Amino acid sequence: MKKELLRMKKAIFGGLSYMIPLVAGSGLIMAIGCIMSICLGYDPTGSDFAWSIDGNVLDQLANCRLDQLIWWTGKFGLNLMPAFLAGFVANGLAGKPGIAPGFVIGWMAGVMNGSFIGGIVAGLLVGYIAKWCKDHIKLRGAFRSLLSFSIIPLVSLLVGALIYRYTIGLVIMNIMDAMYAGLTYMNSDPSLRVLLGVVLGAMICADFGGPINKTAILFVYGVYAETVLPSTYAHIALCVPNLALLLVYFMNRKHFSDGGKENVLSNFVLGIFGIGENTIPFAVTKPTLVVPCMVVGGATAGGLAALFNLSLLPTLGYFMGIPFMLATEGLNAGIMMTIAYGTGALIAALLMTLMIRIRYKKEEDKIIFFESEDAGFKF
Prior knowledge:
By secondary structure, the protein is an all-alpha fold. It has 16 helices and no strands. The protein has helices at 2-40, 57-63, 66-79, 81-94, 99-111, 115-136, 144-187, 193-204, 211-222, 229-238, 240-251, 258-272, 280-285, 287-307, 318-329, 331-359.
């Protein structure tokens, strides 16, 4: 059992090592597009995005918005994350025959709002199906080549699709629907405003772009025309993990490898633009250490934002949103926003530091992020 768990761990970390360049590169491209849009006074997320195929080439070039094109290029990259992760996790378990079905079922996981959690589950599912096929289906002679190129991908894809679509995917979707209904109820009662802020902040920082985070974002966008308050609570909490991990690094340098240091710094830069997916490698490496601390920090930031009755019109994180808060709501609101965000990040960092000091009291020089055995995080 222990050997199999280690095999799963190596497969997951192997998938993550392939996913990190995709997330980091796509996130930076989105950030560049976002900066250009703000400088031009545009919204990069508009539905009339730059890759429309209507009209001739000259018309498209004349009407093309480069900021929108760049932003959506990065967005498409991040949308590939579940498929990318599932494909390479399956590859870690079953080799090349697992890659293609892993990509397809991973894409299905993304479409069903499973995000990176669904991608990991899909990768493990397809990987073990493909591995079972390799171990139990035997062909001889000229038919042997069909096994890796046709039979294993075919069986893995069909069986994996049926299992994920009608069991795992539905379970994740039903849980997310229940969470959405709970948020809708809290939003309908003004007396539950602070509780709503706490819950939204916790959800935003629970899985860093995963299904729980996506449910919270979907909710705040859904009620945005009615009220911007839930969006404010969620987006103030959005960048808490990025600053918290940077503070944790400064307080615990000896527990970070060179690769961990690089990822902390790039994670903070992406956090300036509201991109949190680069926190995922830390959460997967030490989930019981990272996730609870970030949830508490996010809940604190969201709760304080609700307590201070902050209102931020644009759907931006702290760093991009603070100029708008100062311009529209005044200096006092900007200070309150900074207190809410900074307190959440500081509490998360202190709590995580305390847990590190307790857990690794006898291993003061142990590398936690990332150990060399963690299936090769390479930067």
